[in-house]
Amino acid sequence: METQMDFLECLEPDVALKILTCLDDSADLVRASAVSRYWQNIVVSNELSKQLCMRTFPRLASITCVVEPSCHDNSGETQRDHRAYAYLFRAITAFPLTYCIANPVSASSTDRYPDESIINTMVPMNSKIGRGSYWSSQGTDDPDISETLVYNLTASFCVITEINLHPFKDLRDWNFPIYSSEFVRFRMGHPKSWKELNYDFIEAQECADDKFIWTYTSPMFPVAQENRLQRFKLPEPVVCIGGYLQIELSGRVQKAWNDKYYLCLSHVQAVGRKLSPAFSVDFTEPSNGVSLMYDAENFGICKISPSI
């Protein structure tokens, strides 16, 4: 019989590790770890799945530990982490796209509450009628005053790829003004304290911006003064650990009948991948340590969920 050799075992360990580090898909790392015990040892002991996740999605560096409640074997911490990060990479890149906004949290200002509340931005434009179909800021003489809207996402752990805004066009004014901003910027993050969010900022008409730690800030995007849903694709998919989105609207271009500048939105969408219930995060206060929770039993269910 022809003698077979494992070419990696013929190399220096550092060279073998360098070769396997070049794999850029967690599925390939899983396959490599199944080739032999030697390959598995290189992949698992060097945490190549975790390294790939951190390299591709740097915001995952805030995760301090992995917990797998459904695991009942004795495979050990390194095997568990390898498994969790390998499947996390697949989830971030392959789970179906869906709409990811759950509830509005606060607006920096509201003109006529509750008729022009941020709550109105949750309803798509084609099903809106009447005054309550948009959010409006308070009017101002200064066109440079910004406004912010804060939303709770559908999961505390998700991936956002784009955010869509529909500026409001006032059909009651014969000039049909569109109260769009000049620019928009997005932030994502988590609460400074989860206990402080047991409060209705919308009803109180208070801004909640200072209740959060924003771990991601997007570039500024120009906004068209047009009556349509405008898509703002992020430069790269953003892993949001904490589940909160802030929309910052900058620059006012439209005056109303009272000669004041306003900003108004009809509808807001966030498009991305919800990672729960296969994955979730748990924050430890006051240190804000982040535990990654992996549920293997729910992974397959999430993977085949319908997309938008």
Your description of this structure?
The protein folds into 2 domains: 113 residues, no CATH class; 177 residues, Galactose-binding domain-like (Jelly Rolls), CATH 2.60.120.260. Helix content is 21%, strand content 31%. Strands 3, 5, 7, 8, 9 and 11 form a 6-stranded antiparallel beta sheet that branches. Helix 2 packs across helix 3, helix 4 packs parallel to helix 5 and helix 5 runs parallel beside helix 7. About 2% of the residues have low confidence.
CATH superfamily of the largest domain: Galactose-binding domain-like
Question: Could you tell me the strand content as a percent range?
Answer: 25-35%
Identify the overall geometry: elongated
| Domain module tally | 2
> Could you give a short account of the major beta sheet?
6 strands, antiparallel
Termini Cα gap: 55 Å
* Secondary-structure element series: HHHHEHEEEEEEHEEEEEEEH
Write the CATH fold name of the largest domain: Jelly Rolls
Structural class, by secondary structure, is alpha+beta
Rg over alpha carbons: 24 Å
User: Helix fraction?
Assistant: 10-25%
The DSSP helix count reads: 7
On the 0-100 scale, what is the average pLDDT?
89
Q: Just give the CATH class of the largest domain.
A: Mainly Beta
CATH level-two architecture of the largest domain: Sandwich
Number of strands: 14
Uncertain residue ranges: 127-132
